[in-house]
């Protein structure tokens, strides 16, 4: 009994003690006035706090692209933008019978992940949702089939979608090869690249009007015109409104790696044939085509050479794409969106958004539970976006509703690794990337299944891989990794799964506006390592020029290992990282292998082959400095060429300094005086009036020649300019004038013409005759002033009678019905460059309709 009383007393004492402790805790909390979670959230989510989270660069970009301007002229703040997005997308829940409490909670969740910079939808959603502008998705694929009706119906649809801001993808493999017969017009095809140029020009006009999207053009490796396509962007100013990619097959890659010296064959209309070289005139028009012998390795090297030169074309492993096609019932996939991460059926689209992985690291540890919550919340948000789609092309809206694709991706991965102190190019880094993507992919699929129970499965479910798996899904596909250019700027994080380009760099947008960056995680690491201030300033100055710290041995090795940048990383490590992510991505990944300028063609080739062997769906490379215009640049921004400067020729581009060994001991051109005097001659040619100006040096000898004909930039103007430049170089290098005239006179073109001074056979002949007249007149004047007899034959060598035949410059033929060619009249069309033909007494062009009789 005593023990029982004792225990009871002890129990009573413990209860009293617990009450005292609880009261003490309450009093302590009251004294410190620690804010409740509700108050903390209210403080954190105030408009002022939200607006202050955005960097100067982010706000500058957002004002141009994302913040709406109201009727009164005022522009919304970032906080107002977030409220607009979260409210409009939560309201969709009303359509599915949810009550106000559920809708309010959904809006709060949407608002929270947006305000904390943990997630953002893609650009078109950020701009358009909740505003008067129709809501559309960033990426769509449209069909181009082998008929004028299809080509130009798609161009019409594409123009409307481009105007709304969509990015578009097109496969040009379905178009017949250049110089193939066309049944309806009884003519010859101009080929896929010619129609690509038509699309490019159309989109260029739309782009000039403001809103525009990017574009992708693809061609299969076994199309006969594949070489023409590979080379179509050799100049930086060509086809500026498209990215281009070659779709390579497993068969091709096996032949490259296993049988590199065997002939590569193409297919057209089920017929096996060799690739062809498309012959084009200077104005780009097709003049013919010839089949060529080329091995798979040589064709692969052609792709590598062009990619090494300026970053294009990219490569798509199309067999791998279709092995993972989530909707096989809709047929094979033949193209992707502009950046290659979203492979789509014709008229299908994808609604993109990205999770910022940099926001899930605390004290060098990942918060996986929070990542799962944000993923599921983002999945619901993106599914609601689809209900609000309103595309200007109805087929796109319909397929969006039937497939309900979303492309949930990531950004800030490199920043996440910096915080975790894990090198990007390490096995640990790849494992962390794989785990992050697996977590997101699994959570997104789980969320889609939950939403399917609430709202129903997507309409094309029976055509999908989920039918066989007996899994009910709301969405046909859920994950992808987009490049996240401007949205990563908005949240001030690294792009996609890319390594950081440089620790300090200048980014410029399409208008040439510059945004300077210095990596904030590197700055923080320097502080934590207590590096002395003079060295800190030296480091910052150095990384402005190089972007990297790998050569700075005064820094700790651990720091150098962690803070690697894109060009510190081998191509193999780039592709291994992409492959690690690809294991848990429904669609594809936008990823670029950034090479230093010193990278070799062999390294580029190795990158492509590694990507194929690793199971990647696409691969893009870029060698730093291989283009005049770059988005990301080292330095202080003073000498960066803006995108608006594309097409302008600089002095450096006009006269490249080659320093060739074969030029040693050769003649160089004399320096041109600032002021020169000369004469201008008018001469009639078969191509119009030609104006030739000849300037003389201080001794009265011809020094340079200029010629003008037709419009600037036209075909004949181009030819005459080229001739005159070579003449001027020869004159300034000391070549005899007599020799130059001899080489020029007598050259026959397709359109000789009679003049009051005799026959002019061609542009070359006309310039030669003018040059002869110029020097002969001067010599005659000189001899007459010296009272000498003039013998023109001794002054200038003249063409023999046998060369001039009957004196007209036109060879006669015994044929009773001479053809145009027999008469030296097989001219090129001044509009398209095709051969002109005689029909009904008039010379005309069957290709474009030009006629000389009008």
From TrEMBL:
Its EC number is 1.17.4.1. It catalyses: a 2'-deoxyribonucleoside 5'-diphosphate + [thioredoxin]-disulfide + H2O = a ribonucleoside 5'-diphosphate + [thioredoxin]-dithiol. InterPro entries: RdRp_reductase_class-2 (IPR050862), RNR_lg_C (IPR000788), RNR_lsu_N (IPR013509), RNR_NrdJ/NrdZ (IPR013344), RNR_R1-su_N (IPR008926), TSCPD_dom (IPR024434). Coiled coil: none annotated. Transmembrane segments: none annotated. SUPFAM superfamilies: PFL-like glycyl radical enzymes, R1 subunit of ribonucleotide reductase, N-terminal domain. GO terms for biological process: deoxyribonucleotide biosynthetic process; DNA biosynthetic process. Keywords: Cobalamin, Cobalt, Deoxyribonucleotide synthesis, Disulfide bond, DNA synthesis, Nucleotide-binding, Oxidoreductase. Its cofactor is adenosylcob(III)alamin. Residues 672-774 form the TSCPD domain. Residues 138-622 form the Ribonucleotide reductase large subunit C-terminal domain. GO terms for molecular function: ATP binding; cobalamin binding; ribonucleoside-diphosphate reductase activity, thioredoxin disulfide as acceptor. Residues 53-133 form the Ribonucleotide reductase large subunit N-terminal domain. It is an enzyme of class 1 (oxidoreductase). CDD domains: RNR_II_dimer. The keyword Disulfide bond applies. Belongs to the ribonucleoside diphosphate reductase class-2 family. Catalyzes the reduction of ribonucleotides to deoxyribonucleotides. May function to provide a pool of deoxyribonucleotide precursors for DNA repair during oxygen limitation and/or for immediate growth after restoration of oxygen. PANTHER family: RIBONUCLEOSIDE-DIPHOSPHATE REDUCTASE, VITAMIN B12-DEPENDENT RIBONUCLEOTIDE REDUCTASE. This is Vitamin B12-dependent ribonucleotide reductase.
């Amino acid at each position: 009994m005593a023990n029982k009383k004792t225990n009871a007393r002890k129990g009573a004492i413990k209860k009293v003690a617990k009450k005292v402790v609880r009261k003490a805790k309450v009093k302590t909390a009251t004294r410190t006035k620690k804010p409740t979670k509700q108050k903390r959230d209210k403080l954190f989510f105030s408009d002022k706090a939200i607006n202050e989270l955005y960097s100067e660069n982010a706000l500058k970009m957002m004002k141009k692209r994302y913040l709406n301007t109201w009727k009164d002229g005022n522009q919304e703040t970032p906080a107002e933008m977030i409220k607009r997005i979260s409210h409009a997308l939560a309201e969709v829940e009303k359509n599915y019978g949810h009550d106000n409490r559920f809708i309010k909670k959904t809006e709060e969740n949407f608002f929270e992940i947006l305000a904390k910079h943990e997630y953002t939808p893609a650009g078109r959603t950020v701009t358009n949702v909740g505003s008067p502008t129709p809501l559309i998705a960033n990426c769509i694929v449209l069909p181009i089939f082998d008929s004028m009706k299809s080509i130009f119906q798609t161009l019409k649809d594409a123009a409307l979608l481009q105007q709304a801001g969509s990015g578009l993808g097109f496969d040009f493999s379905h178009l017949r090869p250049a110089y193939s017969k066309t049944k309806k017009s009884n003519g010859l095809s101009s080929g896929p690249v010619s129609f690509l140029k038509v699309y490019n020009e159309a989109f260029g006009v739309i782009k000039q009007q403001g809103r525009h999207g990017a574009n992708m053009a693809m061609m299969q490796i076994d199309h006969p015109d594949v070489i023409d396509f590979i080379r179509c962007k050799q100049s930086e100013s060509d086809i500026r409104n498209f990215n281009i990619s070659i779709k390579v097959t497993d068969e091709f890659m096996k032949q490259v790696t296993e049988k590199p010296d065997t002939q590569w064959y193409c297919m057209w209309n089920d017929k096996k044939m060799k690739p062809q070289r498309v012959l084009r005139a200077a104005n780009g028009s097709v003049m013919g085509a010839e089949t060529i012998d080329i091995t798979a390795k040589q064709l692969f090297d052609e792709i590598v050479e062009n990619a090494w030169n300026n970053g294009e074309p990219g490569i798509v492993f199309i067999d791998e794409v279709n092995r993972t096609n989530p909707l096989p019932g809709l047929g094979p996939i033949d193209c992707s969106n502009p950046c290659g991460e979203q492979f789509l059926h014709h008229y299908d689209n994808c609604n993109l958004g990205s999770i910022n992985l940099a926001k899930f690291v605390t004290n060098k540890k990942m918060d996986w539970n929070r990542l799962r919550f944000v993923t599921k919340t983002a999945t619901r948000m993106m599914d609601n976006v689809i209900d609000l789609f309103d595309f200007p092309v109805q087929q796109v809206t319909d397929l969006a509703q039937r497939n309900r694709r979303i492309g949930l991706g990531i950004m800030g991965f490199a920043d996440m690794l910096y915080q975790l102190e894990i090198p990007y190019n390490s096995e640990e880094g790849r494992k962390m990337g794989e785990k992050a993507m697996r977590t997101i992919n699994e959570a997104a699929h789980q969320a889609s299944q939950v939403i399917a129970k609430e709202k129903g499965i997507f309409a094309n479910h029976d055509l999908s891989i989920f039918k066989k798996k007996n899994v009910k899904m709301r969405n046909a596909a859920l994950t992808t990794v987009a490049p996240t250019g401007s949205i990563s700027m908005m949240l001030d994080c690294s792009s996609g799964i890319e390594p950081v380009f440089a620790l300090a760099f200048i980014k410029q947008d399409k208008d040439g506006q510059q945004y300077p960056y210095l990596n904030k995680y590197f700055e923080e690491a320097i502080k934590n390592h207590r590096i002395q201030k003079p060295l800190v300033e030296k480091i910052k100055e150095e990384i402005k020029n190089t972007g990297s710290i790998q050569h700075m041995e005064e820094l700790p090795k651990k720091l150098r290992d962690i803070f690697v940048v894109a060009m510190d990383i081998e191509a193999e490590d780039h592709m291994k990282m992409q492959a690690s992510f690809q294991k848990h991505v429904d669609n594809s990944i936008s990823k670029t292998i950034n090479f230093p300028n010193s990278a070799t063609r062999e390294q580029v080739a190795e990158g492509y082959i590694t990507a194929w062997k690793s199971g990647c769906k696409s691969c893009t490379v870029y060698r730093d400095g291989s283009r005049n215009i770059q988005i990301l640049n080292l330095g202080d921004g003073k000498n960066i060429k803006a995108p608006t400067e594309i097409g302008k020729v600089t002095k450096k581009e006009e006269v490249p300094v080659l320093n060739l060994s074969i030029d040693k001991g050769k003649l160089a051109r004399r320096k041109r005086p600032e002021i020169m005097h000369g004469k201008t001659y008018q001469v009639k040619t078969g191509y119009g009036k030609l104006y030739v100006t000849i300037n003389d040096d201080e001794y009265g000898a011809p020094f340079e020649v200029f010629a003008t004909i037709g419009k600037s930039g036209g075909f004949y103007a181009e030819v005459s300019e080229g001739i005159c430049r070579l003449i001027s170089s020869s004159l300034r290098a000391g070549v005899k004038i007599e020799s130059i005239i001899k080489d020029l006179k007598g050259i026959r073109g397709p359109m000789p013409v009679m003049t009051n001074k005799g026959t002019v056979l061609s542009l070359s002949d006309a310039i030669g005759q003018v040059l002869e007249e110029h020097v002969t007149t001067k010599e005659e004047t000189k001899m007459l002033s010296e009272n000498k007899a003039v013998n023109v034959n001794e002054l200038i060598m003249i063409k023999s009678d046998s060369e001039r035949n009957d004196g007209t410059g036109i060879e006669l033929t015994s044929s009773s019905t001479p053809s145009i060619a027999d008469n030296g009249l097989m001219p090129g069309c001044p509009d398209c460059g095709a051969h002109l033909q005689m029909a009904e007494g008039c010379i005309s062009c069957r290709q474009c309709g030009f006629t000389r009789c009008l």
